């Protein structure tokens, strides 16, 4: 395990070095993504220009929610953002290269394309988070600090699992990119807003089916000490790491199943 | 080193836009062969004949539909990772090197992926740098390499961990004559000196003639030849074509040992057997010769001839697996 992490570090490190060779280009891309991702946030501000509250959330609270989601999303994108080009990899036969190497395929996918420009969005998320926290007057307790800190890695695992599950479709369709994006990017967009503004079926979908509500909505309720407008059990607010483990297990099984299908039917 | 018995691979494809019909495509049908340690053999066939599918089953990428495969004592599809440590693979049209990284960085990463001990890595790399002359572009990003340079890099990448068995899928495709020869020399070297077993697919007969003693020919998923290259030539590929350009259009040349296949203005196609030197002299003596070239039969043509002379009911096999006739189909 430790050896695998070290190898992953090497794979990523080599790509960072190669991207760092083009300093100007990297700087432009980083600042470009940083600035562009504020457009998202601007959309939220526009909504609050017209209404003081969205359901029971004010602009600072939604900003907090947005920031949590944005940081987790950006870091997931950094890790496996290239999964949306996976159909291409399968069509080219480049996935076969991974199968003749003595390592797990998902591990190789994780280490195969690390794009530093995606850090731009994570930075933007941190800026918004600082803004939100500085205006929110959160009553900090140890538990709240822990939940906030844990929510980011848990969020990454949940996002990543959802992407992997939908990425698996590429083994069947080899051209399902848009369908997958509807759930990955689309789901992320939904998760940036408090889920209680959605209709019941969409809420359930986000809480239980594609569990993106655990990326930021539930942890945010806990950190902000908000009463859950949906009246869901309080324990859900602490469940993100567990949901992360569950999601990762499902993703692992789905991946294995998909690779097995590819190897018996594919080519 | 490799044992294949009654190996088959069937794909299900769905055709039609609305009424999807299932079609079963037999990419490989019940082939059997055996490769001993230290052999260098060619696996030949027209495009789409089933070469790559076979290689994919031998390397554990694809699970066979039926039949038995043992490679280096292992079942590839079930022991993929264990097997991967002991075999090397290179696919001429795929890139296993890291596109944006200097060549050397790719080797470093592969060293860690394969867990090659540091001293063995150093020795191996030093040798390949020398034999394949890698030094001029060792620090160049892969995307800037010429095809020939990249293929040399890919070969090194496939050999760094010291595999005992090497699979090459079209290793010389697209290379110029000089680069081809370098690759061939390298493969002969690792086969003779290090005893690496090499199986290469190609549709370039030149590859086979200059490297392999034995070859397998596959067509439409079935093995139609397993034997020595010399014998195949004698039986089906002995005739070459001499294409001559004369000073002016002439009636078909009458030269002993040849027959004129085609005449097109001043250009004539002569079929012949044996050495070309003497024949060329005779043509020059008989007519005003401007230019000439010699065409080797290509694999498509040899396959055609195998069929036209009556396809052998049994696959021609010089060495059958030692254990008698393979047990009937399952």
In short:
Chain A is mostly helical. Chain A has 13 helices and no strands.
Key attributes of the depicted protein:
heterodimer, A: 267 residues, mainly alpha, 13 helices, 73% helix, 0% strand, B: 330 residues, alpha/beta, Rossmann fold, 2 domains, 6-stranded mixed sheet, 4-stranded antiparallel sheet, 10 helices, 13 strands, disordered C terminus
Structural features, described:
- The complex is a heterodimer of chains A (267) and B (330).
- Chain A has 267 residues and is mostly helical.
- Chain A has one domain.
- Chain A contains 13 helices and no strands.
- Chain A has helices at 2-20, 23-50, 59-80, 86-92, 94-99, 105-110, 119-136, 142-167, 170-173, 177-191, 200-209, 217-224, 240-265.
- The longest helix of chain A has 28 residues, at 23-50.
- Chain A is globular.
- The two termini of chain A are 30 Å apart.
- The mean pLDDT of chain A is 87.
- With 330 residues, chain B is α/β, with parallel strands linked by helices.
- Chain B folds into 2 domains: 2-235, Rossmann fold (3-Layer(aba) Sandwich), CATH 3.40.50.300; 240-296, no CATH class.
- Chain B contains 10 helices and 13 strands.
- Chain B has helices at residues 51-58, 80-86, 103-113, 118-131, 147-159, 177-194, 205-211, 229-237, 277-286, 299-308, and strands spanning 2-15, 21-35, 40-44, 66-71, 87-91, 165-169, 197-202, 214-219, 222-228, 240-246, 258-264, 267-272, 289-295.
- Chain B has a 6-stranded mixed sheet with strand order 5-6-7-3-8-9, with helices on both faces.
- In chain B, helix 6 (177-194) links the parallel strand 6 (165-169) and strand 7 (197-202).
- Chain B is globular and about 70 Å long.
- Chain B starts with a strand and ends in a 22-residue tail after the last helix.
- At the A-B interface, helix 1, helix 5 and helix 13 of A face helix 1, helix 2, strand 5 and helix 3 of B.
